TrEMBL record:
HAMAP family: Homoser_kinase. NCBIfam families: thrB (TIGR00191). It is an enzyme of class 2 (transferase). Belongs to the GHMP kinase family. Homoserine kinase subfamily. This is Homoserine kinase. Catalyzes the ATP-dependent phosphorylation of L-homoserine to L-homoserine phosphate. It catalyses: L-homoserine + ATP = O-phospho-L-homoserine + ADP + H(+). GO terms for biological process: threonine biosynthetic process. Residues 192-270 form the GHMP kinase C-terminal domain. Transmembrane segments: none annotated. The keyword Transcription does not apply. The gene is thrB. Residues 57-131 form the GHMP kinase N-terminal domain. The lineage of its organism: Bacteria, Bacillati, Bacillota, Bacilli, Lactobacillales. It is found in: Cytoplasm.
Length: 288
């Protein structure tokens, strides 16, 4: 059995901790035989545990403590600590592992709720489970998530080679916003979502670039954001935003304009990985 979980981009600018989009980058878990101890075989570097302390295993065992240990093989195209949902993908893989091996018959809603409570916010885990574009909120222990179809678009990501921990990127955020800023920030998010649902990516992209919740406070951590945004605008992109907590920057661009922008960004950022991505419409998948 294989479990395949997509990476995700979160926030889309003003949809902070609420909006997310699934992407065609995958964490794949292959489930092997029962054995004495949990073992996670991967080549993703020393920072990722290979035993029962791996987050996939701890998540699965939290949900289903009686699981028999297994050998697992993990591969991942989702780069770690880059703002593309790698930790959420691991949590979702753990939930699906428990669901399959423990025969839990979890509903999508239950998976989204468990994953959100473990991750703290729904914007990466919800699209990783449901696929496509998801707007969600967590109110105390309740999670509400609505899946929508995101309009067809070209997607370019600029993935810097340096890491940025989500905790570090959240530490620079303010404790409070004034009432009037919060009202404006939320109205920008409302128009952004409405424009997406109306298939108007030009307006959605404009709103994505007007976020007041987080990008301003993170700009010193992500100095390349405003430069990429300016270049992308010159090349006719819809909009550019920080992917999750960064440091990856994501640009939505009409497909006909994507290649030219991609070449320009490759020239401007030779150290970064500039990659074309697509929307993953279905979310986590189990292959028997
Ligand atoms: N909404 C989160 C943030 C995504 O921007 O901090 C990263 O987990």
């Amino acid at each position: 059995m294989q479990i395949r979980v997509p990476g995700t981009t979160a926030n889309l600018g003003p949809g902070f901790d609420s909006c997310g989009l699934a992407l065609n980058l995958y964490l794949t878990l292959t489930v092997g035989e029962v054995q004495d101890k949990w073992e996670v075989i991967h080549s993703l570097g020393e920072g990722i545990p290979v035993d029962q302390t791996n987050v996939i295993v701890t998540t699965a065992c939290k949900l289903c403590p009686d699981l028999e240990p297994r050998k697992l093989w993990m591969t991942s195209e989702v780069p770690s600590t880059r703002g593309l949902g790698s930790s959420s993908a691991a949590i979702v893989a753990g939930i699906e592992l428990a669901n399959q091996l423990g025969n839990l018959m979890l509903s999508q809603q239950e998976k989204v709720t468990y994953a959100t409570l473990m991750e703290g916010h729904p914007d990466n885990v919800a699209p990783a489970i449901l696929g496509d574009f998801v707007v969600a909120t967590k109110i105390e222990q309740e999670v509400y998530a609505v899946k929508h179809s995101f309009p067809e678009t070209g997607i370019l990501v600029c993935i810097p080679n340096g890491e940025l921990l989500t905790s570090e990127s959240r530490d620079v955020l303010p404790q409070t916003l004034t009432y009037s800023t919060a009202v404006t920030a939320s109205s920008i998010a409302n128009v952004m979502i409405s424009a997406i649902l109306a298939n108007d990516l030009s307006l959605a992209g404009k709103m994505m670039e007007q976020d007041l919740f987080h990008e301003y406070y993170r700009k010193n951590l992500i100095p390349h954001l405003s430069d990429i945004r300016e270049t992308a605008n010159q090349f006719g992109a819809y909009g550019t935003f920080l992917s999750g907590a960064g440091p990856t920057v994501l640009t939505l661009v009409p497909l006909a304009k994507l290649k030219k922008l991609q070449s320009k960004l490759e020239r401007n950022y030779p150290q970064a990985m500039i990659k074309e991505l697509e929307i993953e419409r279905n979310g986590v998948e189990v292959i028997h």
